[in-house]
Amino acid sequence: MKPIITAQELQSILSQNNLVILDARTGKTAYEDYLYKHISGARFVDLDKDMAKVVENAAFGGRHPLPDVETFGKTLQNIGVSKTSHVVVYDTSNGANAAARCWWMLKAFGIDKVQVLSGGLQAAEKIAIELKSGEEQFARTEISAPAHWQWPTSTLEEVEREIENNTSTVIDVRDAYRYRGESEPIDLVAGHIPGAINIPFSENLDENGEFFAPEILREKYQYLLKNYPEKLIIHCGSGVTACHTILALEHAGYKTPNLYVGSWSEWSRREGKEIAKDI
Quick check: 92 pLDDT over 90? Predict the structure, then answer.
């Protein structure tokens, strides 16, 4: 199953019995915005509560570390997801915030049929997919958690070693001004991991905010990565938008890259780690 679904394709399967739609928008008023307007039947998932665990020190795990796989399994039960569900996830930022992270976690949990809605809620609204307000009623499910996350991740130490040995290409998907160290709106220090290259996640989208076709993405990444090691490690600020590029690479037919979950939020806080700037 391709990882991206268009609004038109979603509209054609809305009557499918095993379809589960998840609303993964973020922001201070995300849940209130969901209650005000969401795709009919969609269940809300919270980035901070459902897709990350709280840590006392972001220098060890970053701002959005993965929850335990067992804990995420309980979340899936509570929102009615089973191993046979066909899950479609959307947000309001073209998958750049939490929709892609949710997709990654569902796939890494072992759910086979998972897709992100290209263009997000706006695309659904544009073609008049039914919207609703208020809470949704749905049945709780039972689901068995795997022993560990099934998709590849990298630790800070592994990232450092792979760069030193030139055995992986580490891609920083943050905006270029953050990578260059001009300013940093979220984390404590501006700059980037020495040796990482910058391919902003926004380059995965066309002028309408929808994902490029697979062949266009593949041609783009083949050109950008032609002189670099084949193994890829993707990171961002806190392991969320990195999933947007992993999604794009999957869409383009690439082997699943490693996700560096701690990302810049961990590296930049870890004592003794070098910080590069290209101002």
Answer: yes
